[in-house]
Write a structure and sequence with these properties.
The protein is an alpha/beta fold and 295 residues long. It is built from twelve helices and eight strands.
């Protein structure tokens, strides 16, 4: 079983396939390596594809102390993976929890990222809901511990931004729901409490976003309501970014619409790889209908 050792001495399980320019996939709270299968199979034809289980997700180590989890730690685990595999730079792709880690990776280690893809990232990020979200994550973590992840997964898998997947692809959703039940109770509770619940609001990072030069793709489902405003906020402030909205889609966009997701991501990576991803034209950054340099 392939494992790397993090800088704080925990083991992370990873899988890789293909060869060429590296892509690293970071999963969401409800996922793991298996939730990236449609992307691994597609992109391994032309890239070296690497996916890993975050700490708390077996067969990666499951630290019992919730202090071993956090937003910075999730970000640094990506760096440790690159270092252990002796990868200088990679395309970093993350969904939801993995999308937050991807964005913070760009803030902290821009020289190690060929590009950033931030998908479905935004839960609890808006200042109006940040405190409430943090309190809710404590309640959820306590419930996971009380009920076990096997039981809690029955509710979580059919949440308001996951019903779209269940309606579109009931067979695929059932696979996802069954895999979710297998997650560690301790690892899931600690992740919910310390990664999800303690991460800072993205609205505190305007300067970092405006200084970000790494090519960035933001992808969102148009029915993933908690993430919509945040996606627009990121688009407006990250001038190296593009925004894609997938229609009639919820949170699990890479599984709901794998063909569309792969197409959008593939076209983005191809442009980055040939050096054709430009910064946003400054003339377009205005609230005016008409604009000239003399205004």
């Amino acid at each position: 079983m392939p494992l790397i050792t993090t800088s704080d001495d925990f083991k992370l399980h990873f899988e890789e396939a293909g060869s060429g320019i590296p892509i690293v996939f970071a999963h969401e709270f409800g996922g793991d390596i298996r939730s990236w299968e449609p992307q691994i199979r597609y992109f391994a034809r032309n890239y070296r594809v690497i996916a890993f289980n975050a700490r708390g997700y077996p067969p990666s180590d499951v630290p019992k102390d919730d202090k071993s989890y956090g937003q910075k730690r999730a970000t640094d685990d990506i760096l440790d993976l690159l270092d252990e595999l002796q990868i200088e730079k990679a395309h970093i792709v993350g969904l939801s929890m993995g999308g937050f880690a991807t964005l913070h990776f760009g803030f902290n280690y821009p020289d190690r990222a060929l590009s950033l893809t931030i998908a479905g990232a935004g839960y609890g990020a808006h200042p109006d809901v940040h405190k409430k979200f943090s309190e809710e994550t404590k309640q959820v973590a306590n419930r996971i511990e009380a009920d076990t992840m096997e039981k809690f997964a029955e509710i979580y898998a059919i949440g308001p931004t996951r019903v779209q997947f269940a309606n579109k692809d009931p067979y695929g959703w059932k696979i996802f729901a069954n895999q979710l039940k297998e997650h560690s109770t301790i690892g899931s509770a600690n992740t919910m409490r310390s990664v999800q619940g303690k991460r800072p609001s993205l609205y505190d990072f305007v300067n970092q976003m405006q200084n970000l030069k790494v090519p960035t793709l933001i992808i969102n489902g148009d029915e993933d309501d908690p993430c919509l405003d945040v996606a627009l906020f990121m688009k407006r402030n990250i001038h190296s970014s593009a925004l894609v909205l997938l229609p009639r889609s919820g949170h699990l966009i890479n599984l709901e619409e794998p063909a569309l997701f792969n197409q959008m991501l593939g076209e983005f990576l191809a442009r980055v790889d040939v050096g054709r991803w430009e910064m946003r034209d400054k003339r377009s950054i205005t609230s005016n209908i008409l604009w000239t340099p003399d205004d």
